[in-house]
Amino acid sequence: MTDQPITARPLPGSGFRAGVRDGFLLGAEAGADAAAAAGAAGARGGAAEARAGAVGGAGDSGPETRAGAGAVVDAAEALAGEALVATSATRGSGVRVAVFMGVAGSGKTTAGALMAGRLGWDFAEADDFHPPANVAKMSAGVPLDDQDRRPWLEDLRRWIDQEIAAGRRGVMTCSALKRSYRELLRAPGVVFVHMSGSPATVAARLGARQGHFMPASLLASQYADLEALAPDEDHVTINLDLGLSPAQEVSQVIGALGLEGA
């Protein structure tokens, strides 16, 4: 990693655009507010179906879906109907950077940008840091491997280090599905916010976005890659299956981390 400063690109505004999300090239995407509202409504209406699909529907899916569904069911049982579970020892003024993580369609960018705006913190969307070679590869339909992701993750870590060194506070959104990825982002003051939901809930959120399509196989592959956060990783987990609005989710995170008035 070099010492050249990294500046986060501005948060994309509402309206239709083409872009990269979580390592996949996506088509035109509706504004975040409309998508989040539709996704939350769909999640509220189908929460029971989502939970049943994660458990009972696994037998009708491929091995990747079964592996992912099992991991999500375990997370849902740990939440035990709670909106949020906090296992972070870092709170209040100790929180320097919050990394909103999770599979594609979990609402990381919507919630992360909302929290950054509410607290007046800097904001960075990890997908904006991909080098041209990665974008070209994804545009050709070729998935990134860990070698491709390494310099990208190092740039993200450099942004985190710069925020902390400058005495600023920030929010980053990044899928961060594997522990090895999170290890490159971890630093004193970094807390992960896991947007966790069943495959059915996340699929409903994705389906509610106009012009946003992700094949079931790709979503299943993300769940297959998702590695549960360990107790030594400072984090809070939001239960998407309860269908809270993004504003409610952010309020839960702010409260759990003691950031009121931060």
How would you summarize the topology of this molecule?
Layout: E1 17-21, E2 24-29, H1 32-45, H2 47-56, H3 63-79, E3 84-86, E4 97-101, H4 108-119, E5 122-125, H5 132-139, H6 146-165, E6 170-173, H7 179-185, E7 190-196, H8 199-207, H9 216-225, E8 235-239, H10 246-256
Parallel strand pairs: 4-6, 4-7, 5-6, 7-8
Antiparallel strand pairs: 1-2, 3-8
Helix pairs in contact: 1-8, 3-9, 4-10
Describe the structure concisely.
With 262 residues, the protein is α/β, with parallel strands linked by helices.
Identify the notable features of this structure and list them briefly.
about 260 residues, alpha/beta, Rossmann fold, six-stranded mixed sheet, 8 strands
Residues in helix, %: 40-55%
- Average pLDDT for all residues: 74
**Quaternary structure annotation:** single chain
Shape, per Cα inertia axes: globular
CATH topology: Rossmann fold
CATH H level, superfamily name: P-loop containing nucleotide triphosphate hydrolases
Treating each run of at least 4 consecutive H or I residues as one helix, how many helices? 10
- Strand numbers in spatial order across the main sheet: 3-8-7-4-6-5
For the biggest sheet, the summary is: 6 strands, mixed
- CATH architectural category: 3-Layer(aba) Sandwich
Which parts are unreliable, with pLDDT below 50 for 5 consecutive residues or more? 9-20, 24-78
Number of domains: 1
CATH class: Alpha Beta
Backbone structural class: alpha/beta
Strand content: 5-15%
SS elements, strand count: 8
Q: What is the N-to-C order of secondary-structure elements (H for helix, E for strand)?
A: EEHHHEEHEHHEHEHHEH
